[in-house]
Each structure stands twice: as C-alpha cells, then as structure tokens.
Design goal:
mainly alpha, two-stranded antiparallel ribbon, disordered C terminus, 2 strands
C-alpha cells in the first residue's frame, strides 16, 4: 500500500505541477531574500571599513604632528587637539569597537536594523549612555526585513498549508473516500503516508533551493558545513511542526474550505498573535523605567558635581595615590577635575542604570520562559543567533564595548594625573578592541520542535477513533 501511495502521490503532484511550481517559488523567495540580506551585510561591512579607514587616516596625521612637536617644530593645529596631550588622543583619536558580521549574517536581519555595529568610545564619553540605538527607517522597522528568516518563519508555513490542507477532504469531496476505507490501511496511516511523502518532496526542494542560494551568493558551504547543517535541520524540524498541524486538521475531515481557514487561523495564532501577546505582556508586567528621567537625573547630577569638583579631585587623589606622585598634578587642570567627577557620577548613577538593564532582562526572561508556545519564536530566535544578529549578540557587544571604553579611559589616566605627554613610542601600546562572539548551539531547539511535532502526531492518532472514521464515511 505504501508503494502505491508513493507512486500515486508522485504522479498526482507532477500532473498538478505542484513540484514544478514550488521549485520556482522557493528559488525566487530564497534568492530574493538572500539578496536583500546580502545587501544589508555589505552595507554593514562598508560602514565598519569606512570607520577603520577614518581612524587610520587620523592616526597618520596624529603621528606626523607628534613627530613635528617632538622635533621642536611649530604646528598649525589648535592647542587642545595636539596629540601630546593624552586627553586629545583619547577624545579625538578613538579606536573602532566593531561587531563584524558572521558568514551567515545575511540569513536573518534580527536586531541589525535597530542597533549600530560600531562605536568609538572616548575618554570623556558616558559609558552608561552607550545604548547603540540607530532608528534608521520607521517603515522598515514596522514591517521588518525580507530576509531568509522571514521566508522560513512566515511564508514557508503558508506554502505547507497550501500543499497539504486538503489531503483527506479532497478524497471526501470527490467521493473516493469509501474506496479508500475498503483498503487494508487505517485512515490515520493513509493520511500520514501522504503527508510524509509531501514533507519529503518539499524538504528536498527547500534544501536544494537553500544550497543553490548559498552557492550563488558566495557562501563556502564546505567551511561552514556545520552551521549550514544546523540551519537545514532547524528548517526541517520547523516544517515538520506545520505538517503535524496539517495532519491534525486533515483528520478532522472537514471541507477543504474549513481546513484552509482553520490552518490559516493557526498560522496567525502561532506566527503573529502569540509573539505579540508575549511581548505585550512582558512590557505590561515589567514596564521599563523612563530613559528620559534617567537622562535628566544624569544632567542634574553633573550640574551638582560640577560645583564641588575640587573636593572630588582631592578625594580621588587620596584614594589613588599612584596618580599623585607628581606635584605638578596640583595645577588642577580641567580634565583632572572632570575625570575625577566623572567617576563619581558613574558610581552614583549605577543603581539607575542597573535598574533599567535588570527590567529589560526581566522582559527577555519572560518571553524566554514561554517562547516554546510558539515554534515561530524559537525558530526565529535560533536563526538570529546563527546569523549573529540576536538580542543576546548585541547585548554581548554592548557589554564588551563598555568594558573597552573603561579600558581606553584608564589607559590615559596615568598620563593625565602624572602630567606626562603622549609620544610616538606610546602609540603601539594603545588598547585595541576585539569582539568575542559567544558560541551558539541549536541542539536544544531542534529536539524541542521534534517533541512538539511527535506529540501532535500522537494526538491525531489518539483523537481519530473508529467511530469518528465511520461517521466521516457515512456522511460522504
């Protein structure tokens, strides 16, 4: 019976041109979405490269100025920008702290359209204000990006629904269900075989379109074989979930129109409603503190601290005697007082900033606890992590930049408080930023999707009793 089903289903699909149509549609969708994603990645790379080029050009000018000053020559630069001053180097010649894209960055835009990919921390900058937001296009942020993740999460389930919504109902409507019931096979097994064959054919088409797309856009699938295999396994597990949903709906044996409406309703539920509801509940249960109030508090504290900068500097030097070894520090320049007061401001504002970050973490934890309700959420999150554009990736980047900003500032503190000039010999020792990508494992997501799918198949077998099948045959 299985061989018969296989041959009959293949002839049916070829005659109805479903396979040919799906092949063309998948290639177009995957190709166009990958092209869009690749364009965004190239724009990201170009922006980071331009930032590095700008820093390199400024460094060349800085070294020329240092050489001229050290030779006793006159320079035309403004006094406060001459790089012999450590604060001038720290403010006007910062390093680029960049988050370079991963090889699979083009598959999912993720948070890449919300956050910038590089910053240039300075010694007088505010570390707690480094939120890296970059709201470029409101329309794009509203509708999202047409990338491979969008095709897989949103459009692929619609193709599965169109491919499988009437497997059983079409037999009922054509009057052949009685003949099928006379065969030595249960209705559940027959539906499962037909859907299994369609899942097989669609899997071949999807993986084929994916490989062709990767090859066309220059991804080395051999060096990235593990990542590509994980992505393919994730897509197949996500597809299996939707075929399991279709299996349940087909066993209810309603009309084709009712099946289509019900499946589309489930698509809206799992892909649109559940993610939106979880997000809204997270914002309601854990509302974010006002960032405007935090900025106002920061400004008020700066104004208050400015009035007592001399006292703050005395306390700072008392706590850091290594910065007071040179008596000329008592000249108490602007930056001596400013850097000491800046440390106090950061210390005082730490509880406010921590409250903001902790509340954001609570929101993310809320979504994380219930994300398994919607396979669309966990699949989207997994694709974002494979692409290196997830919320966790950008939070990791932000934390590393804050650490580097502190390292950059601390590097110039001995120069400042010991009144030591910056020289050409100090240039090679300037701190450099190197982003460390956290490894990602999809091993937990794929088994979860498989367990959910197996549970749905089991539910279908359990609910489709013999009486239910007889009532379907009698009504036909």
């Amino acid at each position: 019976m299985f061989n018969y089903n296989f041959k009959y289903e293949l002839k049916l699909l070829l005659r109805s041109r479903w396979i040919q149509l799906l092949s063309i549609v998948l290639l177009l969708l995957f190709g166009f979405s990958a092209y869009n994603g690749k364009q965004k990645v190239e724009k990201r790379k170009a922006a980071i490269a331009a930032a590095h080029d700008e820093v390199n050009e400024n460094d060349v000018m800085m070294l020329k100025l240092l050489d001229s000053v050290e030779r006793g020559m006159e320079v035309s630069a403004s006094r406060w920008t001459i790089p012999t001053s450590p604060m001038a180097v720290g403010n006007y010649h910062p390093r680029v702290a960049a988050m370079d894209p991963l090889p699979l960055a083009f598959i999912a835009t993720g948070q890449a359209d919300l956050f910038t990919h590089y910053v240039k921390p300075t010694v007088s900058g505010d570390d707690f204000a480094l939120n890296f937001t970059e709201m470029t296009s409101p329309v794009q942020l509203l509708f999202g990006s047409f990338d491979l993740a969008f095709v897989i999460i949103y459009l692929l389930p619609l193709l599965i629904i169109a491919f499988s919504y009437n497997v059983l109902s079409s037999e009922k409507e054509s009057g052949t269900l009685r003949l099928l019931a006379a065969q030595p096979i249960g209705i559940q097994n027959w539906v499962l075989q037909k859907l299994g064959l369609r899942f097989l054919w669609l899997s071949v088409l999807v993986i084929g379109a994916l490989v062709i797309t990767f090859l066309v856009f220059g991804l080395d699938i051999f060096s990235q074989g593990t990542a590509v295999a994980k992505m393919a396994a994730l897509i197949l597990a996500y597809m299996l979930f939707w075929f399991a949903i279709s299996f349940l709906v087909n066993l209810w044996a309603g009309s084709s129109a009712k099946n289509a409406v019900l499946l589309l309703g489930l698509w809206v539920l799992f892909v649109l409603l559940v993610p939106s509801v979880l997000n809204q509940l997270g914002e309601t249960l854990y509302p974010m503190p006002s960032r405007t109030l935090m900025v106002n508090e920061m400004r008020g504290m700066k104004a208050e601290v400015t009035k007592r900068q001399d006292e703050i500097l005395d306390n700072f030097l008392r706590d850091h005697p290594e910065y007071a070894i040179n008596d000329s520090t008592q000249s108490r320049g602007f930056y001596h007082r400013y850097m000491a007061s800046k440390k106090l401001i950061e210390k005082e504002l730490a509880p406010v900033v921590n409250a903001y970050e902790e509340q954001l973490q609570r929101q993310q934890n809320w979504v994380g606890r219930f994300k398994w309700i919607s396979p669309a959420i966990i699949t989207q999150e997994s694709l974002n992590q494979m692409a290196g554009t997830s919320t966790q990736d950008y939070e990791n980047f932000r934390k590393q930049v804050v650490v580097f900003a502190n390292t950059w500032r601390e590097h110039f503190m001995p120069f400042l408080y010991n009144n030591r000039d910056f020289s050409q010999t100090d240039y090679p020792n300037l701190p450099k930023f190197q982003f460390e990508q956290k490894p990602y494992s999809s091993l937990g997501v794929i088994p979860l999707l498989l367990i959910i799918s197996i549970g749905l198949f089991g539910l279908g077998f359990w609910t489709s009793s013999k009486e239910r099948r007889e009532s379907i045959i009698g009504s036909s």
